[in-house]
Amino acid sequence: MVQDRVLPKISTTPVQITREEGLKIYEDMVLGRLFEDKCAEMYYRGKMFGFVHLYNGQEAVSSGIVKAMRPDDYVCSTYRDHVHALSAGVPPNQVMAELFGKATGCSKGRGGSMHLFSSEHNLLGGFAFVAEGIPVATGAAFQSKYRREAMGDQSADQVTACFFGDGASNNGQFFECLNMAVLWKLPILFVVENNKWAIGMAHDRATSDTEIYKKGKAFGMPGVEVDGMDVMAVHTVAQEAVARARAGEGPTLIEALTYRFRGHSLADPDELRDPAEKEAWLARDPIKQFQAYLVEQNLVDQAELTDIDQKIQATVDASVQFAEESPEPDPSELHRYIFVDD
Ligand SMILES: Cc1ncc(C[n+]2csc(CCOP(=O)(O)OP(=O)(O)O)c2C)c(N)n1
Ligand SMILES: [Mg+2]
């Protein structure tokens, strides 16, 4: 079993969330979890093609970060992108339809699981190549800054969140983009979801310094380590980083310590990871922890949480029906959407 790091404690005591905010985050996390469980079912029934990478276990990262942002901010993902897309506001129907390769999907059935995209929701994309989104997100942050400072558009104060894995943080694009982001003080959050594994490669066997957040320092960028199973801790860190970015004070590197509950993809039998390691992380399920927090803070009771779960399950089920009933892309339109004019 790969040794776990001692998890940092971010003080969330002074942070007061309202019932409304708490429920918004909770609903997003549950949507992510139930949507992914349904994806597994549909994949094994042969409804989806290619590789499908699920996010179960990591929900506190997506919800904690994206719910600290505005709907017009930008989100950039990886191939593990369904939940980032949902947090960014892409409707479940459109995400499920995309996974089924249907014309009503957010990428019009052209992309599938690893290439979710929505200009309407400022979702910059899922990317099949490891670290490929990092320069795209850096470019998005640059255009916000350029529009605001060079073109005088005061409304261009959008922040970009760029999600990627521990494995991606060993790729050169990561270092080049950290350099540029600090140099130009770009409004961006680099969010490393350190789930300890890059397929079957343990993080501590693949990188020089396992504490990724410390790599920001080489570029003069603040680096923060956060318990990625604690949504309130992630949310607190995100709020500070978003405020800094929006105020023109530049980027932040956030390393969220988390774990994926399933194999690398649904084609992975997941035989490499030690069962004891999996058990230890399953016991820290971010959704169960947040349920306990909400009840303890008297923001909600257990019966209400059960109602919410049922309501979200109905939404997920409806997304499958929508995807099933949607048309396939028309083969005569195969060449559409390659160029922007289309
Ligand atoms: C440039 C590139 N190299 C290799 C691969 C094969 N590959 C796919 S996922 C992956 C592991 C990435 O792990 P990490 O960044 O930690 O993300 P996680 O899957 O844990 O979310 C690798 C090596 C790829 N897709 N792209
Ligand atoms: Mg990883």
Automatic annotation (TrEMBL):
Domain Dehydrogenase E1 component: start-end pairs: 28-331
SUPFAM superfamilies given in the database record: Thiamin diphosphate-binding fold (THDP-binding)
Catalytic activity, as annotated: N(6)-[(R)-lipoyl]-L-lysyl-[protein] + pyruvate + H(+) = N(6)-[(R)-S(8)-acetyldihydrolipoyl]-L-lysyl-[protein] + CO2
Keywords: Oxidoreductase, Pyruvate, Thiamine pyrophosphate
Pfam families (UniProt xref): E1_dh
Cofactor requirements of the protein: thiamine diphosphate
InterPro entries listed in its UniProt record: DH_E1 (IPR001017), PDH_E1_Alpha_Subunit (IPR050642), Pyrv_DH_E1_asu_subgrp-y (IPR017597), THDP-binding (IPR029061)
PANTHER family for this protein: PYRUVATE DEHYDROGENASE E1 COMPONENT SUBUNIT ALPHA, PYRUVATE DEHYDROGENASE E1 COMPONENT, ALPHA SUBUNIT BACTERIAL AND ORGANELLAR
Entry function: The pyruvate dehydrogenase complex catalyzes the overall conversion of pyruvate to acetyl-CoA and CO(2).
Name of the protein in question: Pyruvate dehydrogenase E1 component subunit alpha
